[in-house]
Amino acid sequence: MTQTKFLRLFLLAVSIILVSGFLSSCKKDPGQIGLGLMDDELLSTGFTDTLAVFAHAVRVDSLRTDETTLNMLGAYADPVFGPSTSNLVAELWMTSNNPNFGTNPVADSMVVYFHYTGGVYGNPATPLHVTVYELDEDIEFDSTYYSTRRCAFKPEPVGDFVFTPAPNDSVMDPDAMPGTPRLAIPLNLDFANRILQADTANFVDNVVFSDFMAGLYFAFEPITAPGEGSIFDVDLLNTRSITVLYYHNTTDTSTFSMRSSTYTPRYSQFEHDYSLASPELTAQLDGDTLGGREQLFVQPMGGVKSVIRIPDLLALNGDFETSVNEAKLIMQVYNQDTSYSLPANFELMMVNDDGSQSVIPDYSEGSAFYGGNYNAESGTYTFRITRYVQHVLGGDITNRGLELIVSGGSAVPERAVLYGTEPTLVGDTQNPRFRAQIIYTKIQ
Fold first, then answer.
1. How far is CA 54 from its chain centroid?
2. Are 327 and 388 in contact (CB under 8 A)?
3. Each residue of 351-378: pLDDT tens digit?
4. Which of 99, 157, 320, 358 is the most exposed place for a label (fewest CB within 10 A)?
5. pLDDT tops 90 at residue 22
6. Cα first-last separation, the chain
7. What percent of the chain has pLDDT over 90?
8. How far apart are CA 13 and CA 441, in angstroms?
9. 441: which strand partners?
10. Rounded distance, CA 367 to CA 382, Å?
């Protein structure tokens, strides 16, 4: 689009907005507002919510999970999406260099503490089983790690623990003082004693120590019974998230502590088993592009996204230039199962010419304009896609489609099932569920 055409459309849109505001108290057909600015034969406004929208669910290609603010742990079996697990890989640093373990140190216990940060997603009553392994590879802070990466670990476990998450229960700390809720995972004494008996050269600093002990891998046993299991959040950077080795020597008792910090590498590994998912979801993941007419699916943790196409957008231009007054994409939640809360936010990405994804131009207008938040009253998510549609009509963006994902999907477990793109009949009236609404002005 030339600069002259763009300026013409911009000035026209501004004029329409100003005149519309001035006439808002008048009882006038909205389709006629602003027509006095130009010859009636040169200007007309229109509205559509019947453009064909096609969508279906696909697997997420990859999701970066290193150095997130929070980490999810656990395993659960979603009745719709099937079993999912969230495992953790983390390097640990000493809280002080050159520890002196004294003469004949012997381990009394070794515990990994994780500070809980919120509630439980799923069934909090289901026991979870975690196995802890020592890493058999170095992980680096300046490297990028994705949820599909599988770490190398030594075959002999250094910890094995069954527990029920209790993020709301205060605990007694080792000093007999009450503390905020945290998970305590015991490790094997053999592992603890190997640390105490290691050469002192391994404890000079954390660079050397990380060569001696690369880190730990926390692997949760999958849960397959629908409705069982849970996912919960922990904060590895909280001071109450710490690994403590309690020991005694010939003269005293003491502790040796390790923890994650802002500069220690850590990442999540997510696993999903869609063989036990709903038939509607598995059909779409197996290539049924028409299944999205009835239901659509969006899952975080590197799970599922919905791809969206509005192929007839350019038809809005017709023989004339078109200025987009407002364009929205509205999505309605499908029979929400209150056992699983919905995502607070979605993100809407556009597919670029090289196949990569980026946020649509409307994102830069701020969340109040852009949208994507769940509206509990209407049971909908709504995005403004005005700038995106205008750029498509102007030829600045190729209409390669959109992708719907859960916002912050590397650190939140909430998923959603949406109504599909096929309208339903309410009496004799079609009720569009997943739809695009566009108000536009045509200029000859």
1. 23
2. yes
3. 999 999 999 999 999 999 999 999 999 9
4. 358
5. no
6. 15
7. 77
8. 8
9. 45, 323
10. 11
